[in-house]
Task: inverse folding
């Protein structure tokens, strides 16, 4: 017992940075992220993918990025995530308000396939130009083959429910 008393009274334990403290707080089980807040007049349009909460990923809905870099000993996980963010922002800027669903990015070997549904209101010649421009720009920037898999449809066709 005397040994413990002497150990506590030692000078190196009195310095605040060398002591370990435990802080306990109440657990807040509030699950808020990835859920959409209802509007008073139920005007917010949700697709099937948006209507499912995040804990249904791999059960009812799928991932928006398909790659194998996040597995153990995968190549370039940080660069892949950064490239996916760049691709999504580039697509949102180039195809401004034309995608009616999420952009899906699939990586296979040295090929990046970008899939999505585009609003049918765009003229076909403009869509061909945007497709070629996007494939060429991203292929040169990412230094690999980029292919766009575009389907057309109307917004009301992709609406799952209104909240």
Result:
């Amino acid at each position: 017992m005397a040994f413990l008393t002497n150990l506590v009274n030692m000078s190196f334990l009195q310095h605040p940075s060398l002591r370990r403290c435990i802080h306990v707080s109440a657990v807040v089980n509030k699950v808020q992220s990835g859920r959409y807040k209802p509007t008073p007049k139920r005007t917010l349009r949700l697709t099937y993918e948006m209507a499912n909460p995040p804990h249904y990923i791999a059960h009812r809905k799928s991932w928006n990025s398909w790659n194998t870099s996040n597995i153990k000993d995968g190549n370039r996980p940080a660069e892949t995530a950064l490239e996916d963010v760049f691709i999504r922002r580039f697509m949102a800027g180039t195809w401004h308000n034309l995608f009616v669903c999420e952009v899906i990015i699939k990586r296979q070997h040295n090929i990046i396939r970008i899939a999505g549904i585009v609003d049918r209101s765009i003229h076909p010649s403009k869509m061909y130009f945007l497709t070629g421009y996007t494939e060429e720009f991203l292929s040169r920037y990412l230094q690999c083959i980029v292919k766009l898999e575009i389907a057309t449809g109307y917004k009301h066709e992709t609406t799952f429910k209104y909240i």
Q: What stands out?
A: The CA atoms of residues 110 and 144 lie 6 Å apart.
